[in-house]
Amino acid sequence: MDSDINKYTKDIDYKEIDKGFVAKINLLAKDYKQLLLELDEKRKTFLEYKTALNNSLEKLATLSGHDMSEEDKKESEAGFKYYNDLLSDTINKCAGEYNFFEGIISEEHPKTIKVLKSQPDDFEEVIKWKIKDSRSFFKKVRKDLRVSFSQLKLGFDQKLTNLKVMELYLKRDQENKKDK
C-alpha cells in the first residue's frame, strides 16, 4: 500500500515559516478544530435521531405484534451506516489536516512533508496551496452539512411523525377491541 502512495507523492524539505504565516496557520488550525466540533455535534444529533427512530419502531412492533422484516432492518441500517461513514470520512480528513497544520508550526515539526508529485517543490508554495484548499474545503463541508443534515432531519421528523400516528392508531384500535 505504501508503495502505491509513493508512486504519486514526493517528500519536500521543511523550511522555517515566518511569523505572519504562522498566524495564518494558527487561525486555520482553529477553524479545523471548530469544524471538528461541529461535525461531532452533527454525529451526536444523528445518533439521537437513530435511537429515537429505533425506539419508535420497537414500540410499534410491540403494539402491532409484528416485527420489522429483516430486509427493512437491513435497509434502515444501511442508510444510517452510509451517513455515519460520510461523517467519519469528513472527520478523519479534518483531523488529519488539523494535525498537519499543528505539526508544521510546532517545535517538533517534521523534517519533510509528503506532497503530490504534481505540486511544487517549494515548501511555502505548498503550504499556501493547502491553506487555499482548506478554505474551499470548509465552505464545501459546511454547505454539505447544512443541506444534507436539514434533509436528513426533515426525513427523520417525517418518519417519526408517521410512526407516532401509527402508534396512536394501534393504541386506539386496541382500546376499541377492549371495549367490545
Name the beta content range. Answer: 5-15%
Number of helices: 4
Q: Uncertain regions: pLDDT < 50 for 5+ in a row?
A: none
The side-by-side strand order for the widest beta sheet comes to 1-2
Number of domains: 1
Mean model confidence by pLDDT: 84
Rg calculated over all Cα atoms = 24 Å
Tell how many strands the DSSP assignment holds: 2
Largest sheet entry = 2 strands, antiparallel
Distance between the terminal alpha carbons, to the nearest Å?
70 Å
Proportion in helices: over 70%
Question: What sort of overall outline do the alpha carbons produce when their principal axes are compared?
Answer: elongated
- The secondary structure category is mainly alpha
Q: Spell the H/E element sequence.
A: HEHHEH
List descriptors.
180 residues; mainly alpha; two-stranded antiparallel ribbon; 81% helix; elongated
Topology:
Layout: H1 2-8, E1 9-13, H2 19-64, H3 70-105, E2 112-116, H4 123-179
Helix pairs in contact: 2-3, 2-4
Structure notes:
The protein has four helices and two strands. The longest helix is centred in the C-terminal third of the chain and has 57 residues, at 123-179. The relative contact order is 0.16. The chain is mainly α and 180 residues long. It has one domain. Helix content is 81%, strand content 6%. Helix 2 (19-64) runs antiparallel to helix 3 and helix 2 packs parallel to helix 4. The protein starts with a helix and ends with a helix. Strands 1-2 form a two-stranded antiparallel sheet.
Give a nutshell description of this structure.
The protein has 180 residues and is mainly α. It contains four helices and two strands.
